[in-house]
Amino acid sequence: MKIIIYRRIDSTNVNLVEERINKELEYVSTDEVITIDASELEYVSSAGLRIILKIKKRFPNTNIINCNQEVYNIFEVTGFTEMMSISKTFKEISVDGCEVIGEGAYGKVYRIDPETIVKVYKNKDSLDVINRERNKARKAFVLGIPTAISYDIVKVDEYYGTVFEMLNAKSFAELLNEGESIDKLVDESVRILKQIHSTKNKLGDLPDKKEETLGWVKFDCDYLPKEIGDKLVKLIEDIPNTNTVIHGDYHVKNLMHTNDDNLLIDMETLSVGYPILELACLYTIYEGFECFNKKNPEEFLGIPSDTCREFCELLIEKYFDSEDEKTIEEIKNKIKIICYARLLRRQLVHYGEDNEEAKKSIEYCKNYLIENVPMVDSLVF
To answer: What is the CATH number of the domain that holds 287?
Structure first.
C-alpha cells in the first residue's frame, strides 16, 4: 500500500497528519508492505519522524521512496536509513555532446563542464554498485589515499551516474597525448602507487584480491594439464596474506591531474592483497590485452600502443628501483603468469573453448602458462 506525505510535517500539523495516516491504515494487515511516497515532502521534523517510527513498528515492511536530498539527509543523520529502505529522487542531467574522458568495465566518464565530471554506469540497476564505490572512495580518502570523492548521484536517461568535482582536471592519458614527459608521469604514478601500497586496512572490510585470483586459477585448472594447474594453484596459495591496500584498476585514465594535485578515481576495485596482484592487473591493461587484439590497450587507454608498453616497462623498473634486465624480466614473468591466468579465465567465461574468435587468445594464454609456470617457484618478490 502507498501513502503520500505532503509538504511539511512539524509540530503545527503533526496531529492532523497522524490522524489521516491512521485512517488510511486502519484495516491494513501488519504483513502488508507500506510504501511512503515522499516526493512532495519538503521537510520533516522530529515530530514527523516519530509518526514514521510508529508506522515502522506496526508495519515492519515499511519503506520510503522519492525523498529529495534535504529530506534524505534528515533520515540519514537520524539513523532511519539503517532501519528501513529509503531512496532518493535524483537530479536528471544530459551528457549529449559531452567529452568522453574515460571508459571502464562498469561505466563511462564524461566531462560536464570545466569543473565537473560524471561517471555513468552501464548497468541500469547500479545503485548498489555506486554506493559501494562511494563507500570505498570515502575509505580510501580516510586512509590518506589521494582520491576524488563523489558529491552527488544523478540520473542520465535510464542510467545512474556519480558526480565528481574535478576542477580543470586532465587524465594522465590526456597529458601524455599533449606531450607531457612520460618519465615525469611515470614517476608520479609510481609515487602514488607506492603510497597506496604503504597503506594498511585494519578493518578487514575490503575484498581480498588473493581469494579472487585463486578463483580464476581454479577455474583454469579444467583447461590446463594437471601438473600445471596444481602448481599454479599452489603459487597463488603461497602468496602472502596481507592487508595492503591495492587499487586494482591502476592506469593513466584513472589518474587525474587537477590544479596542483594528482588524484586517483574509480574505486570499485579497491581491495587488499600482496602488491604483485596489483602489478598483474596493471600489466594486463597496458600489455596483456594485446593477446586478444594488438590495438586493445591503445583503444582502452587512448594512448599509442608504443606508449602503453613504454609506460608499463618504465613503471615496473621504477617501482622496483632497478634497471637490471634479468631482475626485471624475472619479476615480469611472475606478473605475466597471473595476468594470463586471469585472461584465460576471462576468454573462457565470455566465449567458451570452441569459439573461433577467441581460440587464438585462449591458446596464447594456455601456452604461456604451460611454458612458464614450471620455471617459477614463487610469485613473491
So the answer is: 3.90.1200
Amino acid at 250: Y
Q: What is the CATH number of the domain that holds 65?
A: 3.30.750.24
- Host domain of residue 232: 170-375
Helices (H) and strands (E) in the chain, counts: 14, 15
Structurally, the chain folds into a number of domains equal to: 3
pLDDT in tens, the chain (381 residues): 888 888 888 888 888 988 999 899 888 888 899 999 998 899 999 888 998 999 999 999 999 998 888 899 999 999 999 888 998 888 889 999 998 877 777 788 898 888 888 999 998 888 888 888 888 998 999 999 999 888 888 999 989 999 988 767 889 999 999 999 999 999 999 999 999 999 999 878 899 999 999 999 999 999 999 999 999 999 999 999 999 999 999 999 999 998 778 999 888 899 999 999 999 999 999 999 998 888 889 998 999 999 999 999 999 999 999 889 999 999 999 999 999 999 999 999 999 988 888 999 999 999 999 999 999 999 999
Closest C-alpha to 315, from 189, 199, 176, 177: 189
Amino acid identity of 146?
P
Give the separation between CA 361 and CA 206, rounded to whole angstroms: 32
Categorise residue 178: left if φ over 0, alpha if ψ from -120 to 50, beta otherwise.
alpha
**CA 122 – CA 341 distance, rounded (Å):** 26
Write the DSSP assignment of 319-361 as a string of letters.
Answer: HTT---HHHHHHHHHHHHHHHHHHHHHHHHHHH-TT-HHHHHH
Is-above-0.85 flag for pTM? no
Q: In whole angstroms, what is the distance from residue 108 CA to residue 300 CA?
A: 11
Q: Are 209 and 277 in contact (CB under 8 A)?
A: yes
Same domain flag for 156 and 177: no
Last residue of a domain, one of 130, 165, 200: 165
Write out the E strands in the chain: 2-9, 34-44, 62-67, 86-88, 91-92, 99-103, 107-113, 116-121, 150-156, 159-165, 170-171, 245-246, 255-258, 261-264, 271-272
Q: In sequence order, what are the beta bridge partners of 200?
A: 244
Residues 306 and 213 placed together within one structural domain of the fold: yes
H/E element, 206: none
